[in-house]
Amino acid sequence: MSKALYFIHDQLMGVVDVPSLVYESHAFFCASCGDIWARIIVDGRLSYCHQVPCEAHLPQFAAEWTDVPGSLIRYLPQVPVMDWARDIQVLPIGVLHWEFKVHNAALQRQQHEEMQDA
Ligand SMILES: [Zn+2]
């Protein structure tokens, strides 16, 4: 087993054991502000970069318009199974709390926009 360290804005959110077959770390890049706002580091392995907006920016410049800003969880149509690092079953509790916060904020934004459109 290897250790995966989850960081959001340089704050350690939790550590989980992952199979030694995991061969990459992950970095989450916001195209709007240029920040690497989250990282999942596995034993110092090279990082795969995901373009996902941070929680402060809407996904206007992101590759995937359905991204929830600030979320590590994402459905990738080109990948039939969810990536291990973003599988909700392996996320540390600190990341789950973060996910609740950013998904709740996105839902409130969506409801606010729907009320303005009505
Ligand atoms: Zn940003």
Structure description:
This protein has a five-stranded mixed sheet with strand order 2-1-4-3-5. It is of the alpha+beta class and 118 residues long. The longest helix has 25 residues, at 93-117. The protein is elongated. Mean pLDDT is 83; it is low at 76-82. Helices cover 21% and strands 27% of the residues. It has one helix at 93-117; strands spanning 2-8, 11-18, 25-29, 36-42, 47-51. The protein has one domain. The structure holds zinc ion. Residues 30, 32-33, 35, 53-54, 56-57 line the site of zinc ion.
Could you list some keywords that capture this structure?
alpha+beta, 5-stranded mixed sheet
- What portion of residues is helical? 10-25%
**Poorly predicted sequence stretches spanning 5 or more consecutive residues:** 76-82
Count of domains = 1
Give the number of DSSP strands. Answer: 5
Spatial strand sequence of the major β-sheet = 2-1-4-3-5
